[in-house]
Amino acid sequence: MKKILVTGGAGFLGSHLCSRLLDEGNEVICLDNYFTGSKRNVLPLLDNPYFELVRHDVTMPYFIEVDEIYNLACPASPIHYQVNPIKTIKTSVMGAINMCGLAKRIKAKILQASTSEVYGDPQIHPQTEDYWGHVNPIGPRSCYDEGKRCAESLMMNYNLQNDVRIKIIRIFNTYGPHMNPLDGRVVSNFVVQALTGKDITVYGDGLQTRSFQYVDDLIEAMIRMMNTPDDFMGPVNVGNPNQFSMLELANEVLDITGSSSKIVHLPAPQDDPEQRQPDISLAKEKLNGWEPKVQLREGLEKTVAYFDSMLQRGELKL
Ligand SMILES: NC(=O)c1ccc[n+]([C@@H]2O[C@H](COP(=O)([O-])OP(=O)(O)OC[C@H]3O[C@@H](n4cnc5c(N)ncnc54)[C@H](O)[C@@H]3O)[C@@H](O)[C@H]2O)c1
In which pathway does it act (predicted)? Predict the structure, then answer.
């Protein structure tokens, strides 16, 4: 049994990770300040004696003895990370410093949840890990993009300078149950709009494409990455390379929900990348042949079922 710290563990991805780590027989400490996460996401885990929930902000040091740290704490959607951009930078940068400092002191292994946003508005498609990105350092997304880039740099330098065992994964657009319905992310937006009979809002012409990874595929890759040999640190892209346009996604959601919502178009936000697509060759090679297994239709059906049950229980407050 390993003792594992998950920062941001009450969030969308963190809650799935905590649950999977417990299923594998580990002891899990979930640390969160509940900015975008919620106790509701980890409610079913609270009865497990090997699960501990701690309210804490990663911008402050935290001391504990663990074997592994998954550092996920950070708001992930523009709506939330732009509420307080300075705090977003602090969360990424000071969070990484505090968690790497802890890993150094207790000789734990640490995995950083980085993002495809480090590639900015990429000029090559698909993106491979050796692409340095095309980021606007003063744009409205920079608090997130540059914070995450700095966190990657911190990880690498804690390894170089202090031999901390580090792992970096660059997560591409992921969806599934436990997404925050107020996040403004495209999948949760479309699903909630369809379920509540509201117009489906597509930004721009809707022809811009995105890749959509189901959460279970990501969690599998995260755990495999943590278990790779110490000399493999990444960064490694983890995403689903299949591309869908916003209009295709909207129509798929309409089909699953049977909703009569109409599709309407709104202006595209500033710095919204036209396209982002992972090259996952490295993940396949280094993570024991890992590749995404869940098709969009299947993942969307599970996501619709989740939001529908929230709606039935009156928990979907918009
Ligand atoms: N979901 C995606 O598609 C995606 C894509 C790329 C990267 N990521 C990264 O994965 C991680 C998890 O993302 P998510 O989608 O689960 O988002 P999320 O917002 O659901 O989860 C983030 C969690 O971190 C917590 N948090 C935020 N600031 C904190 C702080 N200062 N101290 C302690 N806790 C704090 C939030 O309350 C929340 O529970 C993030 O680091 C995000 O950047 C996610």
Answer: Nucleotide-sugar biosynthesis; UDP-alpha-D-xylose biosynthesis; UDP-alpha-D-xylose from UDP-alpha-D-glucuronate: step 1/1
